[in-house]
Records
---
Amino acid sequence: MDVAVLGATGDVGRQICTQLVERRILPTTSRLQLVGRPGGASGRAVHGLRADLIDAYDEHAPLLDVALDPTEVVADVVVVAAGMTAPATSGVPMSRAALADKNVGVFTAYAEALARHGSGQEVVVVVSNPVELGVAIMASALGRQRVIGMGAWLDTLRFRREIAVSLGVRRHRVGGFVGGQHGEDLVPLWSTVRISGLDVDERRRAVDRLRGGRSLDGFAAEVASAKEQLAATSDMGQAFALIDSWPPDLRVVARPWMTHQSGAKTAAGTASATIDLVDTILDGRDIVVAGQVALAGEVLDRTGVLGVPVVVGQKGWTRVLLDQPAPDEARRLAAVAERIDAANAPWLRGAA
Ligand SMILES: NC(=O)c1ccc[n+]([C@@H]2O[C@H](COP(=O)([O-])OP(=O)(O)OC[C@H]3O[C@@H](n4cnc5c(N)ncnc54)[C@H](O)[C@@H]3O)[C@@H](O)[C@H]2O)c1
C-alpha cells in the first residue's frame, strides 16, 4: 500500500517520512509520496529530502516520489502534516482561531483535490492543527469514516506512558484512551484504563491512587493553574521537574505544552504516534485506537468532531467503542464537544 505525506519537509512531516522509511513500515514495492508546495522553499526541499532519504536508506526504502500539487496526490493513506504550527516560543501564544485561519485553506485545497481526483478509497490521517477542523473539512468532502485525526492517539500514548511511569511498569502493560479535543481540552478516559496483570479490584485501587480523589470536573482549572506555574518558572529543568510531581493525566497536557514552549517542538513524538496509526491502518486487522472523528450520534448523541476510541482498519474507522463513559467523563466530553463545534462553526459556514 502507498502513503503520501503532505507537508513532507516540515518538522513533523520530515520526521514522519524518515521514521516511515527507517522503521521499514513500507515494503520496497510500496510508494511513499513526498508532497510539498510548488515554488518557494518546500517545493525545492522536497526533492532534496527525497535524495537524502535514498542516500540514507536505499537498500530498504520504498519507491520515493515527489508531488507539488494537490491534484497529484495518490495513495492509500494520506497523512496531512502541511500547514502552520503555533510558534514554539515561550510567551508567544497562538489561538486556535488564528491557527484555523492559517490552515483552513490547506485543509480545503487537499480535501477538494482528493474528492475530485482521488481513488475514493484513501484513508486520511490528520496531524495538522486544529486537528478537529481538519477532520471536519476532510470528512465532509470524503466521507466521515475515511478520516481520522491523530491527536487523540498521541494523547492516548502519552496517557499510557504517564500511567506506566507512575506505576513503575512498561507502557505496553497499560491500556486506556484519551478523547476530547487534542491539547488542553483532552479528556482522559480513566474508565477505559486496563493494566495487564491486575484484576478489577487491584486496578480500581491503582487508578484511585493515581487520581488522588480528583474528578474531571476540576480538570480545566488544574490545567490553567499548571500553565500559570510553568509560565512563571524560567528554568526549563525545574519546569519539567515540577511536571514530574503532578498526577498522570495533568502531565499528559503539561509535558507536551512545556516541550513546545521550550522551542524543541514535539515533532519526534508526534511522528512516532502517526507512524503507529498508519501502521495499524496498513496492517489490515481491525484494532482499537483513539482518534478525532466526525460523529453521527454514536457518543452522547453528538454530531460533530470529537476524539473517541474507534476501531480502525484499511477502510478507515468503523465503530466507536465508548458505551458507558463515567459521569465526569460524559460531562467533560459534552462540554469539550460544544467548544469544538463553536470553534469549527465559522470555518465550516465559510466553506459551505
Ligand atoms: N496533531 C498533533 O499531535 C500535532 C503535533 C505537532 C504538530 N502538529 C501540527 O502539524 C502541522 C505541521 O507542524 P510543523 O511543526 O511540521 O510545521 P512546519 O512549519 O515545520 O512545517 C509545515 C510544512 O507544511 C508545508 N505546507 C504549508 N502549506 C502547504 C501546502 N498547501 N501544501 C503542501 N505543503 C504545505 C510547509 O511548506 C512546511 O513544510 C501544524 O499544523 C502543527 O500544529 C500536530
---
Amino acid sequence: MRGAEVSGLEITAAEVTYGITTAVAGVDLHVSAGEVVAVLGPSGCGKSSLLRAVAGLEALTAGSVQWDGAELAGVPVHRRGFGLMFQDGQLFPHRDVAGNVEFGLRMARASRTRRADRVAALLDLVGLAGFGSRPVASLSGGEQQRVALARALAPRPRLLLLDEPLSALDRELRESLAAELRRILTETHTTALYVTHDHDEAFAVADRVAVMRQAQLVQVGTPAELWRAPDDADVARFLGYRVVEHEGQTVALGPDALTLAPQGVAGTVRATGFSRGRPTARVDVPGWGEVTAVMTGDLPDPGAEVSLQIDWRYAVVLCGVR
Ligand SMILES: Nc1ncnc2c1ncn2[C@@H]1O[C@H](COP(=O)(O)OP(=O)(O)OP(=O)(O)O)[C@@H](O)[C@H]1O
C-alpha cells in the first residue's frame, strides 16, 4: 500500500541533519492504526531525532511524514493531533494530579462534571484511582510517569510518541511499567511510536520493533521474528545475544543457550553464581572469551575443566554477518 490509501503513520525516506551530522538517513517506517512500534537503538543512533521529526519538532531535510495519506510538512506540532511523552514527564509542579491530567483534555467547553469524570477514568486506567488531589511532588518517579501518560492520553491523540518514557526508573519498575504500558495502549487502541535503547522494554511494549543503527533502520519485525532471525551480528548483540564463531559458523547464543554437558566445547570455570534466579557458571572458552552457562546439577568449582553444549532452541546461526 502506498500513497493516499495508507492509513496510520507513513515515514518515507526520512532524513534529519544538524549541520554536518546526519542523525536520520533514508528511514522508511509504517505504523498502522492501533499498532505500537518501538524504535530500538543505542545512544546517538538518531531515534529521538526521528521521533521529533514525526512530532514536528524537527524539520525533515528530505523525505516525508504522512498521516492517513496526508503530508504533514508545514503542519505545526499542535495541529498534528499527536501526543508526546518524555523520559521526564514534565508535569506542572504547581498543579495537583487531577489538574495535570485535566490540562491534557480538549474539552474546555464540557461541564465540570464531565471533565472530572474523564480525569477519574484516566487515572483509573493508569492505576492511580483516588490520586487526583495529590501534589505531583509527593509522587514516586513511576507514579509521575503514570500521570504523564494519563495527561498524554487525555486528548485521545491519534498517535502517541514516547521518548524513553521509562528510562529514569529502576529496572524492576521499568519491567512492570512496560507491561502495563502495553496493556494501556492496547486497551485504548492507541497508535504509538516508542523510542528506547532497552531491548527488553521494546519487546515488552511493542507489536513490532524497528532496530536503528547509525541513523538508519537495519531490521524491522515482531519481537519473535527479530529474536528468531537477527539480520547480523550487531543486531544480535544489541538484542542480548552473545555472538561467537563455532565450527566455521557465526552463532548467536541467547542467555539460555549454553549448558554443561559430558561432551562439547571445552572451557574453564572462572566463577559461579546466580542470574535471574538460576545457578550459572562463567566459563572461559578459548576463542570465545567468557560466556555464561546455565547449570542444572551441582555447581562446579572455579578452575574446573568443563564442556559446554549449545541448546539450539536458544541459539541462531547468523547468515548476513558483518
Ligand atoms: N540539536 C542538535 N544539534 C546538533 N546535533 C544533534 C542535535 N540533536 C541531536 N544531534 C546529534 O544527532 C545524532 C542523533 O541524536 P539523537 O538524540 O537523535 O540520538 P538518540 O538515538 O535519540 O540518542 P539518545 O538516546 O542518546 O538521545 C547524535 O550524533 C547527536 O549528537
